[in-house]
Amino acid sequence: xxxxxxxFFALCLLAPLPVSAQYLHRRHxxxxxxxxxxxxxxxxxxxxxLYIEPWMIGNTHFEMxxxxxxKPDEMADAVSDLxxxxxxxxxxxxxxxHAITQVDIQKIAxxxxxxxxxxxxxxxxxxxxxGFGYLDRLLTWGAASKVYVIPDMHGIPxxxxxxxxxxxxxxxxxxAQVARAWSLIAARYKDNPWIGGYDLVNEPAIWDIPKxxxxxxxxxxxxxxxxxxxxxxAEGDVWGSNLGNLGLTGPGALWDPNLALSxxxxxxxxxxxxxxxxxxxxAKLDLPLWMGEFGYNxxxxxxxxxxxxxQAAPVxxxxxxxxxxxxxWTLTNPSIPPGYTQLxxxxxxxxxxxxxxxxxxxxxxxxxxxxxxxxxxxxxxxNRDVADALTRRDFLTRALPFRPNxxxxxxxxAAEYDLGAEGIAYHDTISTDEAGKGPAGRAWNSGWxxxxxxxxxxxxxxxxxxxxVGGIEPxxxxxxxxxxxxxxxxxxxxxxxxxxxxxLSLGGVNVTGPITLxxxxxxxxxxxxxxxDLKITPRGPALLxxxxxxxxxxxxxxxxxxxSGKIALGExxx
Length: 574
Description:
Helix content is 28%, strand content 22%. The chain has helices at 2-14, 74-83, 85-99, 102-110, 130-145, 172-189, 209-224, 237-240, 276-285, 299-310, 338-352, 361-373, 384-391; strands at 25-27, 30-32, 42-45, 115-121, 148-155, 198-199, 232-235, 259-265, 289-294, 318-321, 332-333, 381-382, 407-408, 410-413, 426-427, 457-459, 467-469, 477-484, 487-496, 500-506, 509-510, 515-517, 527-536, 540-548, 554-562. The protein has an 8-stranded parallel sheet with strand order 5-4-3-10-9-8-7-6. Helix 8 (237-240) links the parallel strand 7 and strand 8. Helix 4 runs parallel beside helix 5, helix 6 (172-189) runs parallel beside helix 7 (209-224) and helix 10 runs parallel beside helix 13. The longest helix is centred in the first third of the chain and has 18 residues, at 172-189. The relative contact order is 0.09. The model is unreliable at 1-20 (pLDDT under 50).
């Protein structure tokens, strides 16, 4: 008998680790990799790819096409109404083929992210299974770039809100449809180590603990029939904000040993303890915590949110920014063709007048295909300021040049002030958004263009630069890292509006005194105001600061034209 016991223990030592140890999994309040090393998931959402949300490309919801509440195909119905079902299917395929490719995942990894959350339309995995080809490729790209993929059931039949007619919570048929999708996904990817976890239902809102916990437990049981390896992720009630409504009471009452919690946060006031309730609950339940969505706020707010997530006490929290691509306030912005803007105008009129004439189907289809092609990464605008805020750890304490080759003599574009937080790279009276508005109920931004800071940047028709800084208030300022050559200059200031006063400092020295800009013919009428005989004495790298003594104007650019001789060889640092 002793010999058999010895052989038994010897076989145990030679046997491989349990299969679950090869995958991301829970170890108390941490997520750890196959080697047992803690990993903090830092990611971006691939929203609007496998589940198209019209608001993310500048549309309001298509109420006239939504049919049953919670039906996740408003965009598909609106497109089909314009061009017919066959062409609508061609558009959907072109969209998915262009919106996310391997180039996107390579860029995401190069920026330092280690994970992506991919919102899914459940029907892509139950009605023909077209979604699997895309998810297969995404996982191949993720493996090549060492990026984990977290499928998120975003578009569900009946919708995520309890007050929707025939919501999922009261429909066994709709629950079965979602369970079917998860069953097929789990069976297909059960052995794939680059699945980071399964996000069961996006942003439930029901205020009914038994119904919500019952749905979660049913979906987990469905997944576990084929996949015992991967994390399952439960979002809080009330759009992911209320983790206490899940009915979990302690470590001994968990639904699954490989469970993680997820919250979402948009615009909440930030204090040193603003995430404390969720972190303390995760610590009490001995579960990992992951913020599956946050964003749509200023860069400083987003960076502070990351800092709050990653504080170790009482638990460190991973995060996933919303989103990689959208029409505004994200890492990249797709190119929107003029033809699609015309379709938006048609849809907006259609809401109030059902008899609005449709645009020709051929023109509409061409605009839609151009829109799909405009989602390709090489056609998108990459927002360096957003990437800097999300990835640079000293963003809140140190400024960096937005454009490293701003020189005097030369042209300085007003919107290209330094990268960094409010009070570090710029000062704006209202620079963040909490619960939808800034201080005193005012929105934190009035320009909504160009960059994602508190600075109010506007699109305009100046012809020289695409943006101007506006919404200027007394006491605000902008900082620019420049390289200067000494000499006499004429300073040309391009501006519009009623006029106002500002002054310039270089290397901490006021070099202009007060400059009073005259009124122009209107906010869109830009004129050049010149200040002659401006003396510049610093040589080499320096900080240039624009202080706004009064408001009431838009600022497009400043141009320093040297008037005292030529620059000597070696005088202008390269």
